[in-house]
Amino acid sequence: MYDERLRAVREVMRQQGVDMHMLTTDDPNFSGSIAPDKYWRTMEWLTGFSCSFGYMLITADRVTFWTDFRYITQAKNQIRLSDAEIFDVTTLPQDYYLEWIRETLAALPGKELTFAADGRTFTNARAESIRRVLAAVPGKSVSWRNQDLTGTLWPDRPDPDSPALFDLDLAYAGVSRQEKLTALRARLEEAGCTAYLSVTMDTVAWLTNLRSRGEYTPMFPAYVLIDKKQAGLYCRQDKLEPGVKKALLADGFSTFETEEIGRALGSLSKEEVLFHDRINDDLAQSIPAGLRVVNGRDPVSLMKTVKNGAEAECFRRANLADGVVLVRIIKRLKEEVSSAGFHELDFTPMFNELRKEQEGFLCNGGPTMLAAYMANAASPHYFPGPGRNCQVKPEGVLLFDTGANYDGATTDISRTVYLGPCEYEEELIRDYTISLKSLIALARQKFRKGTDGAYLDSVARCVLWNEGLNYSYGTGHGIGACLNCHEGPQILAESTYRKEWAASNVPIVPGMVVSNEPGVYKVGKYGIRVENDQLVTEAFTNEFGEFYQFETLSYCPFEPKLIDPSLLSDEELSWLNEYHAKTYELLAPRLTEEEAAWLKGQTAVICRRTDA
Description:
By secondary structure, the chain is an alpha+beta fold. It has three domains: 2-153, Creatine Amidinohydrolase, Chain A, domain 1; 165-304, 3-Layer(aba) Sandwich (Creatine Amidinohydrolase, Chain A, domain 1); 306-602, Creatinase/methionine aminopeptidase superfamily (Creatine Amidinohydrolase, Alpha-Beta Complex), CATH 3.90.230.10. 33% of the residues lie in helices and 22% in strands. It contains 18 helices and 28 strands. The strands form eight sheets. The chain has a six-stranded mixed sheet with strand order 4-3-2-1-5-6, with helices on both faces. Strands 12-11-10-8-13-14 form a six-stranded mixed sheet. A four-stranded antiparallel sheet has the order 21-28-27-24. β10 and β11 (231-234) form a beta hairpin. The model has no long low-confidence stretch (mean pLDDT 94).
């Protein structure tokens, strides 16, 4: 099926004189989390790859696909094109694909060549870097064609999704959109800018205090264009719930249809100075020639990542609700694994139904929950699906990584659950305990003002390094306030981490919510991850400066059968027992008597083993 689709793409390329065609997994808003059945999933339709980051290049006789360490294993398993070459960009020089484009085009016959790509799914910065390469191909004249070539071949392609939009209550948002707009304009004035454009969903949602009733995300496709006189929200007008449009207007936001954003950009005066952090290439062509554009880190990204008091309370409530759900799932799993015949996909509907019972629940974090059994969990971002739905046996471990959206907050938590003895028993216990030591190290760490994500990443990672272990992703990412699960610009990662949405050199400050998720992944054996969400708070000030600390938000017991207390220091063991005591204290009142009794056993004090 997939090879047939590729042949159809190549035939259209031949008919239309296209020598190279490029696709990405992006959409015009660079959401990175579109449900797999939606309009922009052309990559999945063509290849079978369902994850959120990848790009591919097609010529008459070659197909190359690039993704990073998170998805390389899944790409090898999912991509069903027989001749696809798959590359891990983590191990290659930055923008390696640009050199591939240059060399491949240079080797093609003919002097006049055409490169086709859908400009709506490329940042303007990426498109410009490709066009510079096209202009420098020796002995060739290569033209760029803005064309959704693959999408036109997709029969019954779904319409672009746009769910209903509602006002997030001020009790959850904490700050009105009027105040946010005033603060943004002040920052723009300081930067010498008179206009502002945002195309990213989380920024638009936070700035307008709107959320969607989407099935998997509270964000929505829209744009915001602001100048000194007007703040314009460009979205589907028929999706605004009753009263929202009037409320927006009263707060200084005019509303327009999504398609009008190009006209609005095109009508900007050349005296304006426009700020944006990124824009899709198609929309960038609407900016008037000669208009000064300032490109940099979006000031809203720094504003929204520091949670106010109301948002912090929302995070505490949401994480307790999710803790109840996870406790109920783990209890059922342990009790029924020998008889129920569970498969990995069975847990998605379980979580969905239990979360619907929780106060303030809005939607799950995606169509499928990460539930990975044994060797499948060795791929850190494995998701079950058609053709990859392993049976869960009463042996080894099952890894859960799950999250949801509640009023004012988003959750993200991972637990590795012991199901019974297996051939890797001693190895599992050691690796789990080392992972837990790593989490505890970061959870307990106090740090001075100005400390960045690279330093804090090393606090957790060095625990594994001392044992000759490592994990291939960042220790933690920001989490949005009922927005995206992966929020920038801060990230706890090694010093080389630099992406469009986040960087490891961003200082970590009070109000930020970050994940703490170390693990051990052994290909062909198992994967282990433990993860809590943490709120950065003030600790103390002394003659050496201001110091910060972490408040743990997630509460769910760690796996007692995988903990070797002999590997824990007195301080680590004390932290663990205090955490378990607080877990029982907070969750037991929300559970049935039977569930609370089970939780009491899971959170019992862990002592060191002594010789008889």
